[in-house]
Amino acid sequence: MARGGFSHAERRTINKLLLDEADAGVPPPQCEHGPAMRFRRVTKSADGSVVSSRDFYACSAIRDRKICPLFVWVDEHERHGAEHPAKRIRRAGPARQYEKTDNKANAQYFFSNEALSVIEKYISKHGYRRVLCLGTPVVHRRLREEKDMDAFLLDMDSVVVEKAGTSGARFNMVNGFFFGSEEKKFASWLKKGPLDIVVVDPPFQPELVPAIWRCTREVLLGPEVFAKVDVLFAFPYFSRDALVGSEDAPELVMNDYRVDYANHRTYKADKSPVRFFTRFHELTDLPAASYRVCEKCGGRWVHKVNAHCDTCRACTTLHGNKAWSHCAGCGKCTKPELKHCEKCERCLPVEHTCTRH
């Protein structure tokens, strides 16, 4: 047992990104990916009380310290000043083609042809011509080469940025860091005309989303431009609450389209948990083999297994190959493999252990 009567197994540690925490006049350390981000490591006991709390700096792009070893406790950094011996990142692996990934430092997953077609239809239907591709190199390539659209790519991967030529710049979407003199290329492109839409495929880490919104709004576009542009944002449905958790976040709608990745082993077709979130319009004209129109939802396109619930007045199936059903006890639709437990007062697997008595 640990001090205080709780075992270590009963404690929970979380790392929270801090955006507005003031530094003590000492700039944050840097690695190859730009300025580090500040996090707060909080450990709580079983009763929810805080056991410990301490701030640290870490790489904004890489969570694996075997790849980017930058990790500095904030109090130590401020005590030693800017000369703190923060470690530098190792060099990335060999260059690759769009279809492959090499290691965790540069691994990217690319939308399948079907997902690209869905994006392309959305952009074309609403008359968009100027597109900012944030972490979406295959979207950028397809729009420029096949649709002759004015698209610009911002990506941290030097390989895909090099392929983009003058229509791309190396950029870290989490900390807003442009590599070298890349910012000039983007600024020049942005001045050429009004921007229509930003297409984003970010790291799937909920704690980083507020930083991405702030970076897009404050560093890249400015509040006035950001307020007028459409957004198409790829993110897992189970982390959707993270998309609305900051003052910089736009109001988005989650579309019932399961995003397929060409080179991901599990994010494939119907099994993918990733959805497209959009700002001004919903997706339409989805592939007929897997999607249908729900007239009760006002003509909204939904997955073929997504049944309309008259009680909820919506198509409520978020994932899986079977429709969710309404639970009167929970007051909402739940997964078909769950059953309402009167003791626990919620739907749970049949073979669960009750936590309430």
TrEMBL record:
InterPro entries: DNA_methylase_N6_adenine_CS, Mlase_EEF1AKMT1/ZCCHC4, ZCCHC4, Znf_GRF. One of its GO terms (molecular function) is zinc ion binding. Residues 31-77 form the GRF-type domain. Its main location: cytoplasm. The keyword Amino-acid biosynthesis does not apply. Pfam families: N6-adenineMlase. Keywords: Cytoplasm, Metal-binding, Methyltransferase, Nucleus, S-adenosyl-L-methionine, Transferase, Zinc, Zinc-finger. It is found in: Cytoplasm; Nucleus, Nucleolus. GO terms for cellular component: cytoplasm; nucleolus. Coiled coil: none annotated. This is rRNA N(6)-adenosine-methyltransferase ZCCHC4.
